[in-house]
Design a protein that fits this description.
The protein has an 8-stranded antiparallel β-barrel. The protein is built from 1 helix and 13 strands, in the order H-E-E-E-E-E-E-E-E-E-E-E-E-E. It has one domain. The protein is mainly beta. A hairpin with a 7-residue loop joins strand 12 and strand 13. It is globular and about 50 Å long.
Length: 237
């Protein structure tokens, strides 16, 4: 069962890379400047590490100068996250409603996972069928830059603070077990790389993404050319 748990954690780490775009590969546990494009599929992760910056209060501090398209400004509530994965983990996932995303005109951004509903997944990981659900906790703080248009590419700018990010993971198959309970995501980076299949530096939502706020909803998805697909759909809170 321990091996199965590690496989599932690898899958969740891959989720975090593939959900909403690509990023740059950096040394696990380091402080990075987010936004460069990279590989969304596995071992070389696209994200700054959990706990990338020193701030841990969960406030709206952090990030560098940015600008946001006017249609992005405000508070958004996630309706769902849907997508599929290939590579280290093959399968589908859906859920995640309730996440709050707040963006101001200067690009300052906060993602609040406190109200998040679980994401259900069905996967094949290293030949094992794995089913269950996961949810993030805590907040991410940073800043973004986008063009002025209603569609385009959203990129973090400056340092993104993942220091309060946690994950709760429940398996239902091959057995029912809670693998992680509000565990700091930073525990699965750095020296934990082997236990997460090499997929480290998880960065959900606040990463380089294709955005569309041309209608009454906001969608954040993998930029064109990404191997895995995942789309967050939000409505104005």
């Amino acid at each position: 069962m321990r091996a199965t748990g590690k496989a599932a954690l690898a899958a969740i780490a891959v989720f975090s890379i593939g959900l909403a775009g690509c990023g740059d590969s950096k040394t696990p546990g380091g402080s990075t400047s987010a936004g460069a494009s990279g590989n969304a599929s596995g071992g070389s992760s696209g994200a700054p590490s959990a706990g990338a910056s020193a701030g841990s209060s969960g406030g709206t501090t952090g990030g560098g100068p940015g600008t946001a398209a006017s249609c992005l400004v405000g508070t958004w509530k996630a309706a769902n996250l849907t997508g599929k994965l290939s590579g280290v983990a093959d399968g589908t996932f859906q859920g995640g409603g309730g996440v709050l995303l707040t963006i101001d005109a200067g690009g300052k951004t906060q993602v609040d996972f406190g109200p998040m509903q679980p994401v259900a997944f069905t996967l094949s990981v290293t030949g094992n069928d794995v089913k269950g659900s996961f949810a993030y906790g805590g907040k991410i703080n940073g800043s973004i830059k986008t063009p002025a248009s209603a569609t385009g590419t959203l990129e973090p700018t400056g340092t993104v603070d993942f220091s309060t990010l946690t994950v709760t993971l429940d398996l239902t198959a091959p057995a029912a077990v809670r693998v992680a309970d509000k565990t700091p995501l930073s525990e699965f980076t750095g020296t934990g790389t082997a236990e997460t299949g090499g997929a480290v530096d998880a960065q959900p939502v606040l990463k380089k993404s294709a955005y569309d706020c041309s209608g009454s909803t906001l969608k954040l998805s993998t930029p064109q050319g990404g191997i895995d697909t995942g789309t967050w759909t939000f409505s104005k809170a």
